[in-house]
Amino acid sequence: MPANLGEQEDPDEPGSVDLSPFVHPAEADFAAFLDFYRIRWQYEPRSFALRWRDGRIAQMFTPDFYLPEQDLYVELTTMKQSLVTRKNRKIRRLRELYPTIKVVLLNRKGFHELLSRFGYGAVDITSLSEDDIEWVLFSQSEIQQRVQALGRQISTDYAGESLVLVGLLKGVTFFLADLARAITRPLVIDYLSVANPDDSPDGVHFERDLDYDIHNRHVILIEDIVNTGFTMDFVLEHLRARGPASLSVCALLDKAERRIVPVDLRYVGFQIPNEYVVGYGLDHRELYRNLPFICVLKRSAYEDDENVGVEAATAARLE
């Protein structure tokens, strides 16, 4: 098997889009595209020998990009058929010599198709406009890595104990499902639902209460995002009245800048700025929940709603 040449170390962060290292503008566009989705990349990190003559390398192939999290090499091309044909020949040769190497030939139209294969394409899969997204805060891989770390920490902290996870519906659904599978302790899952303030003229109350008796049980309240702390304080008071052996909170997102009521968050996935975020269960009018990443929603995506100002003000009193 011929040797691989020119391998470089993986970067710790997504690449920085700088036109200087790129040979073609399309490469800079692709790097910017990857940065938007917070996908780590390397530019021309490795060369492969394809042919030899008299014991010396006669032909090399250097893919344009390497995506470490996907373990995938990407070679960009134009739609010019002669160039596509030449590059296809090189890629076929590379696959013959290095069968464990994953490589794709990609044109501009193939960007979204590539992302869809690896779970970044929900914007394309639905009818949502990609223009709704200001920027991506946390990629799918970053979320999963953090959830796994939270699961390990909870499993360690509650070694020898069983747990009751209480999810606060319904934005927590995705996070709770992934977190529960990352915890190695025996556990029970139950749910609470607090009435939407716009539909509850009689004041805050539970639309759904617990089915499970949490008396003398170790309980962790799981929440997608904590803002002002009003909702969390209301729910915690309700749970404490049930007499659990212990009660703690695990929040995926903490928007501490908006906090009014102090809340003790034992486990936090990410600290976030005071922005309107959606994805991974969080929604705006029930949309965007299925995005695999967490992103900031552009103001234009919700500012035209006639009641958004009233609803936001009302919700702020409760959250």
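Second entry:
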Amino acid sequence: MRKFWMVLLSLSFITLVACSNEDKNTDTAEKSTDEKTEEVEKEETTETEEESSESEDEATEKEENSKTTAKSLYDESKATTNIMKKEATSLKSSIEMKHADDVLLEQTQITEGEYSTLGVENEEEARAKIKEIGDEEKYKDQEGVEYKVEYTDNTFIETFKVDYTVADLGVVSSLPEGTNSESQFVSYQLSVDNFKKQGYYVEGEQTTEVFRGEKEGYVYEVSILQDGKNKVLKQTTFNEQTYASLDLADKAAAEERFKDTVKGYEELSKEDGVNFDMKFEEDKFTVDGVIDYEKITDLDKVLTAMGIDPSNGQAKEEARNYTVTANGLLSNGLQHIETKK
């Protein structure tokens, strides 16, 4: 099934976290009585001059303190770079993230997608759509920000680079209301978490990504072991649903309704690397399922049982494509809730 993606052409969702500025040196305020008396005498003779330069001094001190606070948060010599990606037939996106500990220093996002991912059909419509989104105008002439979009016959290529050490965080990121922008930095880990909520993965990092959907009478959780190269290695599912949520009278009614499903699971579970177990309880049913692609000996047979045509090369490839799988879950209302390493 083809899935529609609306490309996020902005990093404005990036979360910032506050760092304390209370450790500022206050030694200069701790003077002796004699020093204070002497200072008062000096102030009486220079009051007019000091008042005239007060605003300028405060502005300079404010800027210096801001830079000092930001620099004290990280050791740039320990900076490293990680790459996040999502890759499917119609869209490829990579995000290069330079960070020192949890402080995100620089970020470069390059996204190439077919016009259909924007919900348009051609270059003219794509230009209009991107203009409507307004990022090009928003980031124009912003220090530390480079934003551009290139167009081909069938695709757009968007490049968005941000140097967070000099960029105005109030422009490139969202600050919690009422907080002081001087005491903010962009959190690398929270940024990674936010990108994972959009279906990205960290390149070269094998992890289990957990997705969950829940509402009254229904729970659906999927854990995906992916290899850090956009390939699904193993998928584990858990589904729990009450009979009442399906307007079923009781256990007997549920068993009758899902008897073919149970047979399908039983047949599928005969294959190596696959196991599905559906149980009917007093007021609900549960399904525990495992598909371990590394142990499957006849993938075509398993895909056929799953309703996927193995002769369709693209469909077969997408069956183990992490980006496609993750975005399919997200588009069906599940949310990324956890990463297990």
